[in-house]
Amino acid sequence: MGIPGHWFRGGALRLRLAILVVGICAALLVIVSINERAGLDQANRSTDALRALQLSRTLAQSVAREAPRDPAGLAQTLDELARGAGFASARLEAGNAGADSERRPPPDTCSFDESHAHHLCTLDIPGVGKLYTRLAAVHGDAARVLLLNRNLAAGAVLLLAFALLLGALGAWLQRELGDLERCVGAIRRGESADSNLVYRNDEVGGLARAINLMAQTLDERVAALSKSERRFHAIADYTYGIEAWFSQRGRLIWINRSIERVTGYSPLECILADDLMALFVLERDRKRVLDAAMAAGQGKTGENFELRLQRRDGSSVWMAFNWQPIFDETGENLGLRLSAHEIQSRKEAELKMADSMAALRREKGLKDFYLTSSEEERRRLEALLDVMRIGVLFVDQERRVQYSNRAFHRIWQIGHGENLSGIDDASLLDRTQALRGDDLAYRAHIAAVMTTSGHSEPYEFTLSDGRIVTDMSAVVLSAAGDHAIGRVWIFEDVTEERRIAQRLVELAERDALTGLLNRRRFEEELHQRHGEAERRGGALGLMEIDLDGFKPINDEFGHQAGDQVLIEFAAAIARVVRKSEMFFRIGGDEFAILAPDCGAEAMQALAQRVLARIDALEFTFQGRSVRISASLGIAIYPQHAADAEQLAQHADAAMYAAKQGGKHRWSVWQVPAANDHVI
Fold first, then answer.
1. How far apart are CA 676 and CA 661, in angstroms?
2. Residue 170, Cα to own-chain centre: how many angstroms?
3. Which residues, 6+ apart, have CB-to-CB distance to 677 below 8 Å?
4. The model's pTM
5. Strands 665-668 and 629-637: what pairing?
6. Residue 216: its pLDDT value, please?
7. Collapsing DSSP states into helix, strand and coil, what is residue 171?
8. Please, which residues have CB within 8 angstroms of residue 386's CB and are 6 or more apart in sequence?
9. DSSP letter at 253?
10. Is the distance from CB of 278 to CB of 265 less than 8 angstroms?
11. 1 vs 20, 185, 597, CA distance in Å?
12. What pLDDT does 18 receive?
């Protein structure tokens, strides 16, 4: 079929090829004729110009011969000669020429007059003048006519040959293109195309292969489309929800089988029904359904709408519907699609949910009340923990910090405003490492505590700045008590308590005036050292010292003088006592030295050092020089006593023996008789 609107595009291929080739040949013939005519004209013009020049020279020679014989009749002679030679005209202009002119060749020139097709020549005749001739061109028209006839004959032969060739070529092409056209027509009609086309390695063969491939592809796509259509119908028929197709006039065209499961009516009954609204929809809902369908017909799908459908048995079921317009690929409206699915269970669940929501609202009110109370309680607890001097740290099961109070930040020198939440305990240990005096021991303590599941015992450690801190921890259980939710650590700075305790111990165990250990501590150390000596099988020496003449100093110079004597005496003797020995004030002017692992010789050497130090003491009161003396008693376990009480008794007895023996001496206890040595 031709393409309307243009006779050339709508013609057959052979006709178009013939017209095209004839046009090309005609154009070539015209070009060749024009070129040949131009060449022929040029050649003829050159020939005529040469002929005119030769005839003009002959005429000039004749004029030159006649001029001397008949000068008067030269013009008439010239006219006769010119007509006899075929010149259109000739004239002579007289002129004088000297000898030089005779020897110079004549300046012969010819030109062509296009308007009259004449050759104009000018020649110099020596001694006569200038000759002007006009000669008509005789070869141009005849040559052109001959050329045109010859070209027309050649063109006719060429066109005939091309026509025969094109006829054969067109018939050959038309046969193969006809096969291709029939194949394409079959494809267009949706029929099976002939795939047995002739293939050659040319353009027609390439076109045949492309059409055959297209035919195979279309066959495959048609088969796939047919299969897909069958699957679509199967899916649509067995879709759990209801699917229906209505025409533009609202007539039911198709509905799937789910309608029978939902309502009890078969698809055929629905299609044949005169009024589907009356069959399924309650009267109060019909207007809403129609409005939704009209909106869908106008391209407004909107949201799903819900209503109850009547069943064949008279019951009703809740369904969710949605209208959608259907358009083909050209945009033509094919009708409306109705999709519906059953929501009876959801509606029942919504009713139950409404009841549950009411109950939840009541429960939420209670929870909000308890949550507010709990939040207030939490704030009160945080306020309480922040004013406590005890540091509190809570870590969760992943050992990450959840809470820390101000005291904890103060103990570990962490800024109060810094939030530690989320930091793992290992990072916290690394951060506070420089504060601990023995970091390795503390880390070992932490590792041991984390292996326990109950409360840890209080652990005391010293910080690098001298502060003493104790910690203990306990696992925190959930509200149900069935699993742990973390661990709480309690830290307390006991530096001041330890200092006060130490001070109290010192006050309880040391003499307030001299700073020496008092009688209570003396008795404790005596029993403790005796037990150690008894277990090891070692010795324990005891020396008791009583000042001589102390009471007169106190009475004469006052208690301040007596106190000064006691203080300086205690300081002087303390410099004599070794680190392994202990120096006590057990009474007003009574002192004792306890020396573990010391025998008789060591105790006697100690007594000599003590007396020598006392001899070096001198006091000045009210301008008077005063000296003191002392009596020393020595007893050694186990030589002189079986227990601690007996050792103290025997040392006291030896001291009194030295005092009775003359004072300022030492005495070692012996059973019946005293063996005093005076220094």
1. 7
2. 68
3. 665, 666, 667
4. 0.36
5. parallel
6. 74
7. helix
8. 405, 406, 407
9. E
10. no
11. 20, 11, 139
12. 67
- At 413, is the secondary structure helix, strand, or coil? coil
Residue 80 tokens, joined: 């006769």
Q: What is the pLDDT of residue 11?
A: 47
> Sheet containing 242-246: which strands, arranged edge to edge?
252-255, 242-246, 333-342, 316-327, 305-310
| Distance, CA of 214 to CA of 194 (rounded, Å) | 11
Nearest Cα neighbor of 513 from 451, 457, 449, 559 is: 559
Q: How far apart are CA 573 and CA 583, in angstroms?
A: 8
Please state, in angstroms and as integers, the Cα–Cα distance from residue 494 to each residue in 416, 432, 458, 500, 655, following that order: 21, 18, 12, 10, 45
Please report, for residues 73, 242, 344, 349, 632, the alpha-carbon distance to residue 315 in angstroms, rounded to integers and kept in the order given: 148, 18, 12, 19, 123
Strand order in the sheet with 468-477: 401-404, 391-396, 484-493, 468-477, 459-462
Separation in Å, CA 419 to CA 68, 422, 660: 147, 9, 78
> What distance in Å separates the CA atoms of residue 2 and residue 559, rounded to the nearest whole number?
150
Cα–Cα distances in Å, from 541 out to 518, 578, 599? 18, 13, 7
Task: Say how many residues make up the chain.
Answer: 679
Q: Give residue 158's pLDDT.
A: 72
Question: What is the Cα 120 distance to its own chain's centre?
Answer: 99
The Cα–Cα gap between 335 and 325 comes to 6
What single DSSP character describes residue 71?
S
pLDDT of residue 14: 58
Closest CA to 566 of 658, 652, 630: 630
Mean pLDDT split into 10-residue runs, the chain, 679 residues:
44 62 75 71 73 78 74 74 76 60 56 74 80 71 61 72 70 66 70 58 69 75 69 66 82 85 86 82 82 72 73 86 80 81 82 83 80 72 70 87 85 83 86 88 89 85 89 86 85 84 73 88 92 92 91 88 91 91 91 92 93 91 90 94 93 92 90 49
How is the beta sheet containing 675-678 ordered, strand by strand?
582-585, 590-596, 540-548, 629-637, 665-668, 675-678
Residue 3 DSSP one-character state? P
